[in-house]
């Protein structure tokens, strides 16, 4: 247990990169937008996601299939103390042996379970209705250290609005445990 605490502290201390400061690029239409990417396992995508979560000042909306990464869970709980946090997870995956959904519930995070015919397979987060993180990256140790995963961070207002609209619709259709 002691080594886990030290590992947790080491991971916390090493999370220093600011995600929301991403370069602007010019699209063919002349519209300017910002983006950033990350590829795991080489890219330390968990650290980038943690900085993104920490940047939430007003709101954090998350739709994620699998969440087993303790540091990410911790940061979501911390964020819920300063901003409105809403989270939608897959109801079957949430019952998995390694799932940390119950830890989020115990901490009082506003959590719902997706209602659809198949699985709730999304993996995205919206910070302050101004920036989106999306891609194949589950919030898991496997995605961080073993799997080939990707993340895209976007601040294009139209894209963010589309993700927010989709999240709000899923939130209305989702249910408590």
Could you list some keywords that capture this structure?
eight-stranded mixed beta sheet; disordered N terminus; 177 residues; 6 helices; Endonuclease, Chain A; alpha+beta; globular
Task: Give your account of this protein's structure.
This protein has 177 residues and is of the alpha+beta class. The chain is 35% helix and 25% strand. The chain has helices spanning 2-14, 45-54, 70-80, 101-106, 141-145, 157-173; strands at residues 24-26, 32-40, 59-64, 84-89, 110-113, 123-127, 131-135, 149-154. Strands 1-2-8-7-6-3-4-5 form an eight-stranded mixed sheet, sandwiched between helices. Strand 1 and strand 2 (32-40) form a beta hairpin. Mean pLDDT is 83; it is low at 1-28.
Q: Which residues form runs of ≥5 with pLDDT under 50?
A: 1-28
Largest sheet: 8 strands, mixed
Give the domain tally: 1
Taken from the alpha-carbon principal axes, the silhouette is globular
Structure annotation, total helices: 6
**CATH architecture heading:** 2-Layer Sandwich
Major sheet: arrangement of strands: 1-2-8-7-6-3-4-5
Concise description?
This protein has a single domain, classed as Endonuclease Chain A (Endonuclease, Chain A). Helices cover 35% and strands 25% of the residues.
């Amino acid at each position: 247990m002691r080594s886990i605490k030290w590992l947790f502290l080491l991971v916390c201390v090493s999370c220093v990169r600011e995600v929301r400061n991403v370069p602007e690029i010019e699209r063919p239409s002349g519209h300017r937008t910002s983006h950033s990417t990350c590829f795991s396992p080489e890219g330390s995508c968990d650290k980038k996601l943690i900085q993104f979560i920490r940047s939430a000042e007003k709101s954090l909306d998350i739709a994620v299939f699998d969440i087993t990464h303790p540091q990410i869970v911790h940061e979501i709980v911390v964020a819920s103390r300063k901003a409105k946090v809403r989270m939608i997870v897959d109801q079957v995956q949430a019952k998995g042996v390694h799932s940390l959904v119950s830890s989020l519930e115990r901490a009082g995070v506003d959590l719902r379970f997706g209602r659809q015919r198949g699985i709730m397979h999304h993996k995205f987060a919206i910070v302050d209705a101004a920036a989106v993180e999306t891609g194949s990256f589950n919030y898991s140790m496997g995605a961080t250290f073993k799997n080939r995963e990707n993340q895209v961070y976007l601040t294009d207002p139209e894209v963010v609005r589309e993700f927010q609209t989709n999240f709000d619709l899923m939130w209305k259709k989702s249910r408590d445990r």
